[in-house]
Amino acid sequence: MKKDVAMKTVITVLMCILLVLSLLVPVGVIAAGSFGYAFRIFDITVYSLILCVLSVCVHVLSVIYKGEVGKFTECVSFILPTVSSVNALVSVICYPDSFFAVAPLAVIAAVCCFLTAYKYVKRLPLKIAAFALPVVLIVVAFISGTVIPMLRNTFFKVVPGEVIQTVDSPSGNYYAELIDDGQGALGGATKVWVYERGVDAGLFSAVKSPQEVYWGKWGEFNDMEIRWKDDDCLVINSTEYKIDHKD
Predict the structure, then answer these.
(1) Is a pLDDT exceeding 50 seen at residue 59?
(2) Scanning 33, 121, 169, 227, which has the fewest C-beta atoms within 10 Å of its C-beta?
């Protein structure tokens, strides 16, 4: 009896942790973007791996445990497939450079959440809804063609390539990134983005959406010199660029 109670408690706790962590990126991206900030998770691959491991553990425990669970656990299991699918969609959109690492982990996590919901959601209409809702949301997002641009361009401006150099402003309130935006056969570009430092909570950070102050040919970054004159002026190869500090 005590063993059953302990098992149910572990499953419920792990589900709740999984739910909260799965909400972190979607809610963070939308909430930060609503205030003009860009949301960044500490490491999207590690984050996706943690969600994947938690999802697998919950599913394995649900297979091992043959007893019934409470209404709360059933409700959480009903929500998880939708939250997990949305998290997968947002993670892949906002971190395209990590697609091949994130996508498989996100798919495994979502599948495990679907299987867990299939076991614990008892009513057939709710069981169908748990499967249909995330599928409909993802299909609508891709077909409409509005969700992806909105997330990438409004809520989360993705760094387009490899950061070659980071230069802090004199006050430390701003920093510039020199970016190698390599595009293979298309050539690519050299870009400089300026950020205002925001909130750093360790697990995630939120910074003001960056300004693109320079765009040039690919390869220019090899001989580019960047320095700050002051917080309002960035000097790139002796040319001064005024920084617009938006409130």
Answers:
(1) yes
(2) 227
